[in-house]
Amino acid sequence: MTATPTFTINRRQILKLAAVFGATATLAACSGPSLGAGAGAASRAATDWTGIVPAKEITWWSNHPGTSKLIEQEIIKRFQAENPEITVTLVTAGANYDEIAQKFQAASGTNSVPDLVLASDVWWFRYMINGQVLPLDDLAKHLEFDTDDFNKTLYDDYTFTGNHWAIPYARSTPLFYYNKAVWAKAGLPDRAPKTWAEFDEWAPKIAADGGVTPLGLGKGASWAAWWFCNMLWGQGGAYSDEWTMTLDTPEAIAAADYLQSLIYERKVATVAAVDQVADFGAGLTGCIMGSTGSLTGILKAATFEVGTGFLPEGPEGQACPTGGTGVAIAADRTPEQQLAAGMFLKFLTNSENTAYFSSNTGYMPVRTSARDGETMTQVYAEFPQFRTAVDQLETTRSQDWGRVFVPNADKELTTALEKIMLQQTAPAEAFAVASTAIATSFDENVSPYL
Amino acid sequence: MRTIEDLQRDTDSAVAVAAPNGAVGAPLTPAPPRTFTPRRKKKPWKSWLLFLLFAGPNVALLIVFTYKPLLQSLYYSTLQWNLGSASAIPVGLGNYVAWFTDPGTARVVTVTLIFTVATVGGGMVIGLVFAVLLNRKLHGRGAARTIVVAPYVLSGVAVGLLWLFVFDPNFGITAALLDAIGVASPPWYNDPHWALVMVIIVYLWKNVGYVALIYLAALQSVPRDLLEAASLDGASPVRAFRNIVLPLLGPTTFFLSITTLLSSLQSFDIIQAMTRGGPLEGTTTMMYQIYQEGFQAGRAGYSSAVATILFAVLLVVTLIQMKYVEKRVHY
Amino acid sequence: MATPSLSTPTRRRKPLQLGGYLGLAVAIAIMILPLVWMFLAGFKERDEIYTVPIQWLPEAYDLSNYAAALAAVPFGSFFLNSTITTVIGAGLKLLLGLTTAYAVVFLEFPFKKFVFGLVIFALLVPQQIVMIPNFTLVASLGWINTYQGIIVPGLASAFGTFLFRQHFLTLPISILEAAALDGASHWTRLWRFIVPISAPTIAAVALVSIVSEWNEYLWPLLVVDRSDMMTLPVGLMLLQNNDGVTNWGVLMAGTVLVTVPVLIAFFALQKKIIAGLTAGGVTG
């Protein structure tokens, strides 16, 4: 028997091949992006919208926040009933905001760019500095969007250099959820703690009489650094002042110290392994800070009665960030397509559809008229928990640039917070690493394009 | 029986990668160079043209989708380029400097090393143990072999998701089993070290059957009489295994070390489905970093620099493996 | 650790045998338990999943989680897309491997060794290293969300070429000499003489290509962004984030839908698939 196969490539051949590549490496330089400073968003000439005929077909990329695919399809159906000459194609372009953003950035310069795209709080700014989205003010004026009716904080979240770059759509805030059965066992009043100081008083009772870990905390990207805004701002701190990181201030350190003490000194909080909402729903924790977008999901999942309340106040008062996603129009499309996209965007965010979307998902009604309208009033009557979320909206503020406008900033902050929560790293140390990294990323990825 | 290979063997002064199924004790004797086809010398260009027709499409695809992008990647690594942006700024070696000076790089390298060594080394050890077990004359070993290999054909994403639930520290089986013996579930998802252990376990679960299978085939080709001779000499089974079987498995081990190294370094699905590189970036390998920086952070230039570094390392490691084998494995 | 059965003396056989069975049982349990857990979870209601201590068996075997998974994402399209990309991708890859190996073994060419080296060296280039340029290229061709976009960049055959070449080198000369004397063209020689006697190797390579195409995740994730064009692994991940709350029941039902067809095919074709996997490592 003579079967001795040989893999006929040896080192010399590999080295030879490598040499060939090295020699021809320069050839590759003739493809890819053009060289030079960033094209920037502002350099685009304004379009005169009068006299433009809307395109017949537009595409909308969504991940259907809050399992809203059917709702979105219904709104499209209504739009096409009113505008039979425009066809809107709804595309599931990813499972979450990050995947949508990844696809949208990657598709830049190709013909697979959508007309409308979801632009979440941590992504719209990237789209803008890449020159991928259209400033909307002129178009909104031309189409009479009634922008004054939008919740001001939610609308102005998308402002930069005097322009709005997206329209609020599936907007959420963190909300305090508590297990009413546990509260009753612990003999607490049926409401959320007004302040963190009050929570501190209650926590031992929840642990002793309620028999559960009082507070469940969530980790992970796009999440930890979001709810932490509450503690941070409540102490009078912030991630950044415009582009300057301010995590070394005593206020920021105090906020992180407080968070750490909840876990390690007082042992009244635990960091969930996979999903803090699921743990809460299973009755493992007494209360959590969750997204308002999870409201319907939590009410469905929990086997006990769920109470909601404002996020607890810090020494410096109430502090709650906004979040979720808006919708933007791609810059890289014809004015006809952009006009049609604008028409659909106006329809999508009108008072009636805002209420329809909100009432079915649990996202915030982004228009004042929708918030106070009949549809929502009925929802509040059925789910008083929803009312809390909407009331809390009045106390929200836009997020710090140092988290949402710098690439990788959320990731760095998440890592810092995870170090603080999971490894008991000194806050000053963890924050210093994050601040340096974010400052570098700003210099590299943002400032050349401003 | 004369085969084409007998004719061509001499032309390859090369390293054997694949395990020789029956090569034991049959040392290579170089044959004089001969080629098969051109008995009747025809116009050579006709054969050339045919060669181009037959091999051309494959080579063209490789050039367009493997070699050209390899060079492009090298070029992109010298740019500060946001994916999605139409323009970029040349920064020379800036991305490389940035990677080597980044405080997080040490961690990424450590994670990559641990993951690679554990999955490649651990996989070979466990795979060999399985193979030895499966090579024994036991009832049901055929079925057992099939079951051990089954996870290898499953999608990495599906495997990751199902283990995500298995490892859930509250609702998963590992928690229940550990609880039964009075041990608390480790913080698989909250501790970067345990998370790394977790993804390694899952990777091994999925891939170890393949290693076992290859070793099993090699074991089955070990001639019985060789072992019987050893046994007559009074050698214990353990010694016979160490002194006779293991050396014979050398080429197989070498083959597996290269193939499992390549697939381990490319593994992405399981990490993406289970940890997305976290917590605390404790499961961010260089491969995951390339994806994360390139497509999530959109730093295409930086990502390309990391990719280039990884490729260079891979090349060097493979060359060392080959050099080592040239010296050590003789057959 | 159990020791191999190397002509063991009879008196030692019993305990060794027992140890062997124990080892085998442990190995099988480790491999099977997670799969069983997945199956059971697919039938469980929320409150049966989120209980401490865990509940092993579901109360009822109803399919509501499956219905929910099918309603949430278009599994039908995923299945179709996976099938199309796998069949076309693996088929063409096989063809390219056969013709390239044939050329390398049987045809004359001045830079033959270099060409073969070029093919084999590609095995050392991980996909992630070329993904950004390839993505840019595929996007500029307008191939995003198309089958060719999913298939073509990974089409070239390196490993298959290598295996076929190994196999061709072991073929008996007599057959090929007969074919050559017949005056058959190379194309005919390949299909009439070589392919039939190489059937086991071809089946082996084909099955391995099918498995890897079917499970491919990263590349389709990058080039597909509409759910109706997604393949099963990419589509499955949509379930993970579809609701505000992780719903293990639905997620596991979806995972079952992705894994079970493959498991069935594997158990049905296990002899061939195992032969195929083995051929990758052991030729001869």
TrEMBL record, chain A:
Gene3D superfamilies: Periplasmic binding protein-like II
Superkingdom in the source lineage: Bacteria
Entry keywords, A to Z: Signal
Signal peptide: 1-28
Classification via Pfam families: SBP_bac_8
PANTHER family: ABC TRANSPORTER SUBSTRATE-BINDING PROTEIN, ARABINOSE-BINDING PROTEIN-RELATED
Record-given protein name: ABC transporter substrate-binding protein
Origin organism lineage: Bacteria, Bacillati, Actinomycetota, Actinomycetes, Micrococcales
Automatic annotation (TrEMBL), chain B:
GO BP of this protein: transmembrane transport
Subcellular location per the Swiss-Prot or TrEMBL entry: Cell membrane
SUPFAM superfamilies xrefs: MetI-like (SSF161098)
GO cellular component assignments: plasma membrane
Entry keyword set: Cell membrane, Membrane, Transmembrane, Transmembrane helix, Transport
InterPro entries (UniProt xref): ABC_transporter_permease (IPR051393), MetI-like (IPR000515), MetI-like_sf (IPR035906)
Residue ranges of the TM segments: 48-67, 108-134, 146-166, 194-219, 240-262, 300-320
The UniProt record lists the keyword Metal-binding: no
Membrane topology of the entry: Multi-pass membrane protein
Domain of life (superkingdom): Bacteria
Family: Belongs to the binding-protein-dependent transport system permease family.
Protein name: Sugar ABC transporter permease
Organism: Cryobacterium luteum
Automatic annotation (TrEMBL), chain C:
Domain of life, source organism: Bacteria
Record InterPro entries: MetI-like (IPR000515), MetI-like_sf (IPR035906)
Topology in membrane: Multi-pass membrane protein
GO biological process, one term: transmembrane transport
Primary location: membrane
GO cellular component: plasma membrane
Compartments in which it is found: Cell membrane
A Pfam family annotated for this UniProt entry: BPD_transp_1
Keyword Endoplasmic reticulum set for record: no
Keywords: Cell membrane, Membrane, Transmembrane, Transmembrane helix, Transport
Transmembrane segments: 20-43, 86-107, 114-132, 144-164, 190-211, 248-269
SUPFAM superfamilies with a match to the protein in the record: MetI-like
Keyword Aminoacyl-tRNA synthetase attributed: no
Family per similarity comment: Belongs to the binding-protein-dependent transport system permease family.
Protein name: Carbohydrate ABC transporter permease
